## 1
Amino acid sequence: MLITTLEKAMKIGAVCLGTFDGVHLGHQAIFQKTRELATQRNGLAVVFTFHPHPGALVGRNQVGAITTRQQRVRLIANCGMDVLIEHPFTAEFSSLTPAQFVDEVLVKSFLGATVVAGFNYRFGQAAQGDTSLLRELGAQHSFDVVEVPPVFVDGIVASSTRVRQDILAGNLANIAACLGRAFALQGVVGTGDGRGRILGFPTANLHFSPEQVLPPSGVYAVFSPVWGYGVGNLGRRPTFPQANITLEAHFFSPTPELYEQELEVELIHYLRPERRFADQESLRQQIKQDIADAQGVSSDAQAYTLHLAT
């Protein structure tokens, strides 16, 4: 359940604090601990987070979002949390000192609940507060604080910063290892110029929000939870240039018109970089090769071959 204000009738057992961008394995460990503590107290397991991302506040360094708002809500719900509170992150809210944050938020809304935070949690104006200070303030206000240790993946801490770096570098295997799932882009299907259909390979043209962090441009084997496997070109289409980066996804199974629909597409495997072709026929032949290559990493390869034969 997504809410922006807490209802007084709710019995909160435990609440975890953080931005939780990406909902990686470290975040999932925090959610698991929060659920365990909430169950022990016969109360709800609550997530207290923010929207928009604190890094998007004017005057601060811009931080690319790993997950869209809709993805984060769904992923947190899938982790078994009962309530997600998205507090508006405003300039006024960001100016609260650590003590004021505890007084105005934790004491007023979650008094009696156990507070859960990751080992690297920071809070208050200019991120002055850490878990040690949170524990001190908790003792003053009679609430318990539980710190969740880091989760290591291949000897390195799973973190949103690490995932962003891997996305920018295109390290899909590393991203999946930290997230515990394939990396997925979400956006709205926009109208294109119909060139994919002219070439014989209709595509869904996915447009992204400006704050979303994107991997390197190129051709990828992709997967949609709704439409199955396919191949997609991420970039500006150098043969037929466009201003914005989009994902043109061609799915192996027939799809209806998807214009203006929200669509999530997982990037399964990087196939090749974008490049400019001399003419449409050269591009058509390369798309055929891209499809063949995508079939090699897709469990739908045989189904797609059967579909072409009918």
Note: The radius of gyration is 22 Å.
## 2
Amino acid sequence: MLLLLAMVTVACAQTSTLDVTRATTRDAGAGEQALGLDPSSDPGEAAQVGAGGSSQAGSSSGSGSAGAGIAAPGAQASDPTIEGPVKIGVMSTLSGGQKFVGEPPYRIALAYAERLNAEGGINGRRLEILGYDVCTNCPDEGLAQAKKAVERDNVFALANTFVVNASLDQVVPYLNDKGVPMVQGSSGSQSRKPELSPYNFSVGLTVPGRAAIGADYAKAYLAKKGRPPKVALLYFTDALTSYIADEQREALKRVGLEIVDEEAVSYDATMTNQSSQVVKMRAAGAEMVIGSHGVLCAFNMQAADQADWQAPYLCTIMYDPFTTTIAGHSALTNRDVFADTEGYATQDMNSPGMQDYLALMRDYYPDGDVGLVTLYSYLGMRLIEEGVRSMGANVTRAGLARYLEGLQHYDAGGLTAPFTLGPKDHGSINGAHIVKLNPDGTFQRMTSDWVYPAPIHNLPGPVR
């Protein structure tokens, strides 16, 4: 289960709604070897992940299969067949200071719809995208916008709402009551429940999985570098990242890494100045910083750079160029910085799913960044398309939820590590890659194949 919370919440963005943005055109303005640590190589060196890729028209069904005959989760007394275009609502931060994070999920939805409609839509139906502006941590606003989407605009589903997860605690029970699916979005209060809610799906690397994979890699990295097994743990105080930190703490202990300092940072504007945290981590003798969120790590690296402390970092929720945007080129120049890929492939992996994603970015969103935010958003749209397509003329909301719950050994054409969903699991991926962040915002893949938690972590699913 991935609950990718709001990337930044320094301040609530202005609350004017894009009311309603009906668009299907682009917005023109807007083991050591298993871990990639070959004993003959430097852990900080790997092949460059390139940008671009050949086009694969359309977005055909991903690898794996969907089950049949599953009872509709949370089925309403009446679940009418949708007539006319398929309306998808995207709730995200579309204005103000956090627009740079909130706009890409919306733009990906527009791009996906434009391409799909140019090819004839889904079984002849057009896909219509409606945007709703919600600040990153405004629960009342989130609920108000969800009600507009459902009651006024009759959206079929919500998609790619993960940037405003902190605003969705009231939205999730509302959508469940109305029987409206949400794909690639969740809420902080759901962070410890892989089943999420009957109509909520958020496909990504599990929290215990990311903690375990990160701990395994950190141990191997420090051993290869000949450094003492001492780390600092850096995390936000909100519900989700505190949960991630809890899992990281236990995983680090299991692999024998000593946590010499912990720094809990408020999820507000104070995160931008972490000089005092860096002083304490350095004084405690930390040889590496383990972080629960990429934005937090980026600001911490900025402070470390100013203090001339070149400790390496390994953080989750950081597989995206936003890290370089925040931290700056200098902060990443003289240190190793690693992240997990949240269960997703890297650009150099020549799979049909990755090539289709890259083609969409190149042809319909050329000014967008290739990375976690757009990958996650692409998969959200793809899952909705495939679910609607599978229903033929009888398109219902419960049918979409039923389709998603029936996915087995699915990988979106090689875009993700294979995963299986069901009534008790609405989004778990168990495998990932480790990447190194370069100062120019690109990534180097450090692992030759999907990596899974070591047996010592005793987690379900494949193990390394």
Note: Residues 1-61, 67-77 have pLDDT under 50 and may be disordered.
## 3
Amino acid sequence: MTDRILRVRALMRLGKYQRALDEVVELRPTTSDEDALLRALESVCHSLAGSAEMARRVLAQVRPQELPLAVQFEIAYARFLIGWSQGSVESMEAALASVDVESEPTLYGSWLYASSWLAGAQERYADQVVLLERACKHVSEHPEARDVTLLAHATQSLTHLVREIAAPEAYEFVQQMAETLPWTDDLKTERFLTLRGLAWANALRGSHERALEYAYASRDLAPSQRWITACYADQAYLARMAGQQCSAEAMLRHAVKNALAMDWQCTSEERIALLNLIELTVDDDLEGAQRLLTLYDEITAPLAKRLALAHDRRLKAMENYVRGGVYAAAGRRFDAIELLREAYFTFESIQYGWRAASAAMLLHSITDDRTWLQRAGEAVAGFSESSVARDIQRRAAALDDTRLSSMTRAQRRVFDLLCEGLPDKAIAESLGISPETVKNHAAKVRSIFGVRSRSALIATMHQKSA
């Protein structure tokens, strides 16, 4: 029986829930403890497969009795997942409180990991970071609790959070975990998502070369064509953050072409790649951004209930931010402001700093209300080396500099790209004008600032924004 149960657990870890259920049905328990354990495992399979009601029915078959602590924990975990699937924080909390496993190393790591899910469901994301780090350390430090699959899942979740929340110690820790974890073939998807998250986390802390290395490595592991397109979108975004405008534009065109030709009807989170592409596209190609938004809106498949984004406000805030940007570009000012305000206050309330800052920056662009620029600066404080922070500093400096207000719109666009370090040819390609026109605008800009060289101009603006 023990070997058969281990096989069931192995199938569950591989995400093969129906096969695991088939195995459970064939097993014939010889004791009440075994029967309770099998019912708990069966319930967990149903929850992870998306059938919370069936999970509840199966678990209801377990009779109240004295059970070993390990079986008690399996039952509590099954109850926890039912609560998760139903969006009931109270049920999740009650399930975890029903069993005390702190003195049992083989169970405590899983309890900490489940507790991190509870913190996430309560939108306590800073606490979730702490719990995930504790889970990883506990499992790593207790040989009898060693569970590579749990470590992989916890590392993936922690990576996502340090991409969003300024948590310096956790950021360093999760990079070490990602580099030292013995990733097996069955954890390819988890490794892919971890490396993809680390690419963003590094870029948002100014480590652009390392970010692109992680991005390339993740693309090599992408488990589907949709995820490959998501990687192209990532690389376009990261290249733009790094000031590599030509690379960003080339990758963006490729990503958009792929995205428009692809079927996005899926229950996983690949769809978020479309939101990234819309954000990247909208400033220079409103029609293309609107086509991508229509493609996104045509997705009817709901997100799988096992995904955290299916249960909270984060995805809605991302959608509001991107849709608000499209509405702003299309001249729908009132609608844009309403959506962007909702996005900002959601991101701000859950400490997603750089996202809150991006929403506030866009609100400032639309309203010219300096309060939004101030809020953007406050929100991005934890990501001071990010391109978002640089944009905020540059805009704040521009508001106080009459030389900038004296420029024409065309001169200002050339000036912005000059400050990013782009050569004339790249600026011409980005703006769709001739290199000679770029040179004429650049000369006028240098004259306005009283400098003779591009390097002197950049140095002047860096001093201004410092």
Note: The two ends are 67 Å apart (CA to CA).
## 4
Amino acid sequence: MSGEFLLKIKRAWKIWFALFLVSLLKPVGVFAQDFEPDQLDELLLLSEENEKGWSSPLNEFGLTGSLRTGYWSSNRLSDNDGDFVASSVWLKLDKRLRRGLTLYSEAYVYDEDTFSGGSTNRQIKEAYLHFRSGDWDYRLGRQIVAWGRADRLNPTDNLTPRDFTLLSPEIDEDRFGTEAIKISKIFGSYSTLTAIWIEHFEPNKLAPTKVPGLQFIKDVPKNDNQYALKFDQSGGQFDWSISYFNGVDLNSDLSLSGLRGSDLLVIESYNDVEIFGADVATISGSNRYAAEISYTKTEDSSGDNPNIKNNSFYGVFALERDFGDDLSLTTQLFYRRVSNYQDPRQIVQQGIRTVASLSALMNNQLDPDEYGLNLRLGKNWFNDTLELEISGATLLARHGFLIRPKLTYAISDQLKVTSGMEYFRGGADTILGLQEANKLLFFESRYYY
């Protein structure tokens, strides 16, 4: 580790300790655990029948939420700025209007640098009506659609975006929804057919691309013809699904547009894709086996256009092992294959070569094959009040790795503190190397109400 990063560790411990003392002064309220959207209706019905646990006047109206504050030694904008005290208010509404009809919404107000007087960000993650009638299930409104059975690496999860700049210790909290209609038909005890129409396209939120000599302009389409289909089989010896998505790529392609002053002008465009996907998982003893694959068909199936991604295959193969005593290990091998590969670094014209190589690097297409290993170790103590997670990833074809330890302690049902770090290292020709400026230490306290 560099000397500058070690100095940040020492400074972080001082700020963490101060924030920890402040967090202990927060009043007692209600703990509200985050659940997957598909579980919310069932959990609401159960909560109405269960008179045990904490209660709050807000809960009578279906409202829960959290107040959060924490120290971050860096942001996720690749700009080398550091030492932030972030704060946010999260609010969730889960209100049963009548039998079978639920109104759900989740939003937050977020200040990345509380003491600098910077701008405040707001995000409505979801806001939809959920209706059930017999074997039919309907959702209408802004919603998150999360697909895939692998652990965090999901080739079939391509419908709704993430905010990769959000400062949160929890990975899946960066998800946010788009306006959509989702209709599901249940067949028997195990099978479901789902159709989704997405009215409005929103891309992934990434750190601004900053390269000397290049200026970037986003070109985000207004596409109202995105749709997806999925057949899912769950509950038997094998859980599996097949899926199809026809819409817009959540990640951009780069193309050279011209000159602006002495800089090259680069357009970040979002092109149409078709994605065919499948996943399968099964449990045998203490092991869970999972595989998830996708094939993406782009507008450049021949591979001749350096401004658009090539067709590609992406697969994840996982083994999750439960050792007992609240100890688990997940091992995943991931592999990407680019069809009709042409090396962008061999393009003769310098400007086109620079932009095409950067686009290929950002989209995991700089090499014809990319493969690596992802690990996650989890251990709980004291009735699950103390949780340790150590996750990491490494590229096997090029030099690059990520280490992410995280420790969470639930002081009470209402108060939780989390600390950890994210450390990126890699060559300049790897996606992990591009994120070296985002390595950070963090501490966050949450009060749930």
Note: The chain is about 10% helix and 50% strand.
